[in-house]
Amino acid sequence: MKRIIKTLLFTLFIFVLALPLAACRSEQPAASNAQPEPAKQEQAKKENQKEDKAIPAPKGKNGKVKVALIAEFTTGTHASQYVSGVKKAAAEHGIDLVISDANNDQAKMASYLDTAINQEADGIIIKHGRTETLEPGVKRAIKKGIPVVAFDVELDVDGVTTIDQDDYMLALLGLKQMVQDIDGEGNIVNIFVGGFAPMEKRNRVYEIMLQRYPGIKEIARFGSATANTSLDTQTKMEAILKQYPNKGDIKAVWAPWDEFAKGATRAIKEAGRDEIKVYGIDLSDEDLQMMQEKGSPWKASAAVNPAAVGEKQVELLLQKLAGKKTPRYYSFDPVLVTQDDLPDSPINMDQLQEYVEEWGSDE
After folding, report:
1. Are the C-beta atoms of residues 182 and 251 closer than 8 Å to each other?
2. Do the domains spanning 66-164+308-331 and 167-303+335-360 agree at the CATH topology level?
3. Which of 113, 296, 323, 333 could pair with 137 as two cysteines, CB 3.0-4.6 Å apart?
4. What is the pTM of this model?
5. Which residues, at least 6 apart from 255, have a Cβ–Cβ distance to it below 8 Å?
């Protein structure tokens, strides 16, 4: 009898527990292929991000959009690839692009900027230059409602977007590789020219690295920006090599501009001083092939794709013209490319991402 009662109580207990479960199950919606709410939200977020990144259709004051590129210089392979990026983006979006090359003449640069403003350009992009040269004209452009996007020049003007390649990180990547390769000691040559915002930033990191590694000694410093910087650098580097003729006198050359690195590399190769290593900043098709040459002293270079910089400048300008919010500063993430990363056969910048994965990442 007791066993029967226990069995009945146990059955009743199970029945009571089952009732809420059945109720919950009946309240649940029928299974379907619909996405869970979090997945829907994530998909909507991605779609919004794509929409935010989309370049708006350009609109000019008088039909076709007129954009002026004011460049301090367009010489050198790195600069020419930057210009190619600007031209490509302009062509894709039907922009009437006018390029003015000041050929390192600050007065010309200021004059070209004034001309662009007076001719009522719809937008202005600037490549390099000096703050004191450009700020008055840029302020006038902004006052007239002409948007400005600048590359590698410091402009303290509200409404201007400034693009850079993160020059501090560029220098840090290259210098770290140099220090590692020479075991933190030895004589080095520093090729440097002041007065350019990116050069000044790179040099600050260089000075800190010298303090950090007292075993490294700078025995020579030279540099200039001319119409043929690479050739001038080569001539001066040849003189330095004659001044320090013995193997071991110089361990490395720090060349924070690819035009410097090209000149130093040629001088070292021709002198047969293959024990000297060169470390640079910036890359181009020509630079890659020089690094790939057998016995090349050019061991590493930190860089950002120059064509991508030009394309981004145009994109940001179009966003400004469309009334979209744009950042005050936009900084690219540089990548270190070493000689060991590269194949034996020559490659170009478009192929680089096949050998350096980071090069192919977005921006």
Report:
1. yes
2. yes
3. 113
4. 0.77
5. 191, 233, 261, 264, 278, 279, 280, 281
Above 80 in pLDDT, residue 64? yes
Total H helices, total E strands in the chain: 11, 12
CATH fold for domain 167-303+335-360: Rossmann fold (3.40.50)
Handedness of CA 113, 260, 79, 354 (dihedral sign): negative
The fraction of the chain above a pLDDT of 70, given in percent, is 82
Give kind and range of the element (H or E) at residue 335.
strand 335-338
Share of the chain above pLDDT 90, in %: 75
Give the Cα separation of 285 and 218 in Å (integer): 30
Element (H, E) at 91: helix 77-92
Fold of 66-164+308-331: Rossmann fold (3.40.50)
Judge contact between 314 and 67, C-beta under 8 A: yes
Say if CB 126 and CB 70 are below 8 A apart.
Answer: yes
Give the rounded distance of the alpha carbon of 231 from its chain centre: 26
Helices 77-92, 306-321: inter-axial angle, 10-degree rounding: 40
Q: 79 burial class (0-12, 13-18, 19+ CB within 10 angstroms)?
A: buried
Task: Check residue 23 and give its pLDDT.
Answer: 37
Query: Alpha-carbon distance 152 to 93, whole Å?
Result: 24
Q: Say which residue the tokens 């479960």 belong to.
A: 21
Largest CA distance in the chain: 115
In this structure, what are the phi and psi dihedrals at residue 336, rounded to the nearest 5 degrees?
-90, 125
Q: Are residues 261 and 301 in contact, defined by beta-carbon separation less than 8 angstroms?
A: yes
Both structure tokens of 113: 């900027």
- Asked if residue 86 lies in contact with residue 314, where contact means CB atoms within 8 angstroms, the answer is yes
Domain boundary assignment for the chain = 66-164+308-331, 167-303+335-360
Radius of gyration from C-alpha coordinates of the chain: 30
Position 28 confidence tier, pLDDT thresholds 50, 70, 90: very low
User: DSSP states of 103-127 as a string?
Assistant: TT-HHHHHHHHHHHHHTT-SEEEEE
